[in-house]
Amino acid sequence: xxxxxxxxxxxxxxxxxxxxxxxxxxxxxxxxxxxxxxxxxxxxxxxxxxxxxxxxxxxxxxxxxxxxxxxxxxxxxxxxxxxxx
Length: 85
What we know:
Mean pLDDT: 86
Helix content: over 70%
Radius of gyration: 20 Å
Order of helices and strands: HH
Number of helices: 2
Low-confidence stretches: none
Structural class: mainly alpha
Number of domains: 1
Shape: elongated
Number of strands: 0
């Protein structure tokens, strides 16, 4: 049980760290690049909330991909043969 909790905690940390640059990629898809410097306060707030949406959607996407890969691994694993007497 301890290994399972440790593995889940490790995946949580990895997911949180990997989501940071993916949130920036999400902003890049909408055209918000570092060249945009002169912005009003309203647009800065808009970009912040858009970044948070990208960050959390990236985090959820990482976990969905992880669960799909775990389920495929479980489904493709060879079944153990039991000896019957």
